[in-house]
Amino acid sequence: MASILYTSFMLMVLLSSYSVCYAFPGLNFRRGGEGYLGLFPEFYDYVCPQANDIVMSVLESVIAEEPRMAASLLRLHFHDCFVMGCDASVLLDDNEVFASEKNSGPNSNSIRGFEVIDEIKSKLEESCPETVSCADILALAARGSTVLSGGPNWELPLGRRDGTQASLGGSNTNLPPPNSTVQNLITLFRQQGLDEVDLVSLSGAHTIGMARCTSFKQRLYNQNGNNQPDSTLEMTYYNGLKTVCPETGGDNIVSPLDFASPARFDNTYFKLIMLGKGLLTSDQVLLSGNVEETMFLVKAFAEDDGLFFDQFAKSMVKLGNINPLVGYNGQVRKNCRLVN
Q1: What is the domain-level CATH number for residue 200?
Q2: Are 69 and 151 in contact (CB under 8 A)?
């Protein structure tokens, strides 16, 4: 009993301390940290009250047909916010002014779901022309995808506006690669104003979705440049992965990030990491990287799905608050792929 009480106490200290220690400069929170200045959940209540219902109606149909799309839409929001903030820059196609972020190393032949965003945008334009931004659509789709997969709901601050440029370079440098060390992950997250608690909880999004063979092949055949596998891989899992991901070729073959419940948003992802069955290096190093805070949180979330759900919701709000364009900044795109 004393051990349980101590663990609970340390977890409360950890969660509360990190929310203060690495606060992002420039963030102006309202109502106890629930939203960025200019963002609030009721933003569309009078100008487009049906906005979320429209988003959910499209998501329900799409995810029922292809459950994997939920993870893809959640990932789109993440890949957007890590590059110049949550401004829907990830949705822009190439033009004569800039190269699309879709062409970056982390995104090319990888991120997907653009047609779903297009469908949502089209329906919103029919009901509320030039009102709901593409950046807010990404945030709403990420929340809706989480809920429809069995995950938590949260009060979502809205009112983001869309950017008018993309950053191919930012996409190549800001997004954590799948072979990241834990220190690299911590550094990239801190650059966005996200701390170790956010890192571990948001990594839990890998409880749903798939990863391409090219993302984890290194772990199977040449983790440290010595033609040997990653020693942290559990042997049975390792042998199974080799059967679906050959040493030569097969880069686009996909494997579930959470093979136990790949379409269900739960805390199994953390339980698998505890067993040495995290798919990506960036998953397993949360435990094997010898950073006390991330190790502690992996264990805590593996033991308590309610704790994980609660923190994931908080971290998703924090993610969505990264440098949004508000007020007269940016625009509301009529087509998410193009600047007006």
Answers
A1: 1.10.520.10
A2: no
